[in-house]
Each structure stands twice: as C-alpha cells, then as structure tokens.
Amino acid sequence: MTVLIIVLLVGYVVVRRMIGEPLNARDVYVPPVVLIALGVHSLTRIPLTAVDLGWLAVTCAVGVGFGAVRASTTLLYAKEGVLWQRYTWRTLVVWVVTAAAGFGLGALALAMGMHEQARPMQLSIGVGLAGEALVVALRARGAGVPFAPDRR
Question: Per DSSP, which regions of the chain are E strands?
Fold first, then answer.
C-alpha cells in the first residue's frame, strides 16, 4: 500500500511539473527531506550488514546523480515576476532511465547479498529528488529571479 501511495504522489508531481508550475522553495526542499527521513527511519528498524551499507552508498550516489541529470533537463523561467519550472520530454526520458537503472542496480545489489529491507523506496526516491533539488537550487540562484511564494 505504501508503494502505491508513493507511486501516485510521484506521478502527481511529474504531471504538475510537465504542465509547468511556480517554483517555490517548499516544493524543492521539503519532499526530499521527508522521503529521506522516512527511508532512514525504516533502516533503523533492521540490522544492516556491511554489504547493505556498501550498496546503500552506491545506490544513493547513483540516485543523486540521476536526480542532478534530471534537473538539468528541467526548464526554469521567469513568469509573473517569479521562477517557474517545467519538465520536458527529456526529463521524462531521464525519469524512465532512472527507474530502469534503479531496478537493475537493486536487482544486482540483492544478487550480491543486500537485504531487501535495506532498500526502502522512500529513500531511493528521496535521494533522487535531493539531487534534483540541489541542481535546481543552483540554477534558480543563478537565474536571479525569486522563488514563487508558498501557496499554502
């Protein structure tokens, strides 16, 4: 059930960003922090081996890298005096490649001895979004246009 909720939320975010939306700091920074925290919390409930920790480091580094690549394909532009973002078809391609690489790397990690419980989906998605957030934040800063105000 958790996996379905996460997939639906990610799908919702992707659709919103394909349409284009104002870019506010909360949307950039909060989701990766929350997802990483949930993933790390789930890891505290299981005994991790050295193999688990090694593969976690590799998969997290790959996730951050793919997130950074994904961010480089995102359009950032000024509209109504604030920064907006829009995913492109290239962003979708990177999402698909990221998912395929994640599944492949995960299968390899499991075959090499990583425990299934040491691969929380929240952490995987969170580190990818963190890589995306870092690059988007740097690009936004360079744009010289303020973030959009928080909608809430």
Answer: 21-22, 75-79, 82-86
